[in-house]
Structure prediction request, 223 residues.
Amino acid sequence: GAGVSQSPSNKVTEKGKDVELRCDPISGHTALYWYRQRLGQGLEFLIYFQGNSAPDKSGLPSDRFSAERTGESVSTLTIQRTQQEDSAVYLCASSSHGQTGELFFGEGSRLTVL
Amino acid sequence: KQEVTQIPAALSVPEGENLVLNCSFTDSAIYNLQWFRQDPGKGLTSLLLIQSSQREQTSGRLNASLDKSSGRSTLYIAASQPGDSATYLCAVDDDKIIFGKGTRLHILP
Prediction:
């Protein structure tokens, strides 16, 4: 596609529900990154994929968070049993080369947990 | 553990002035450094990417420099305009891509 696409753009859920956030990277980009940005805060690294593999999962805040990528394309970030502190914008980015390429971001998925 | 610091946290300057934003990082073993801007409620837009072997990059009124050995980068904005008002973030790539907290820039008309 022309850019990184994220869905849904907005999600309101009740505490305890599971949510899935989707990221479609730019076609051909091998590296994909997930970040969390709480209101008024900086970007918090969550996880990155090189192809379909995630070399570093250390940024995931808890075992309620998981992510996968298939076909070296779409990625989903799943949050189980959501808590109010999970409320944030979740940003996805992709690049053509994991360590030398320019990073392009989607518009983000805004999650609100009531 | 890589840490990225941006100073100042916020800056207001009159239109037309030249300005410099600073970014420092603790581990110089990076592959590249990238500057972004973020408008309120929006995603990030890439401004400039500097590879570890490069010293600077230029795009229009923007110039970014990199001194890897000292762990510093600067973003120079010439002849600032109200449309430059945004948050500017730098990010370093050392396998993970780590961001600073940004500088909120306000250009006064």
Observations:
- The first strand of chain A starts at residue 5 and ends at 7.
- Chain A touches chain B through 22 residues (CB under 8 Å).
- Chain A has a mean pLDDT of 92.
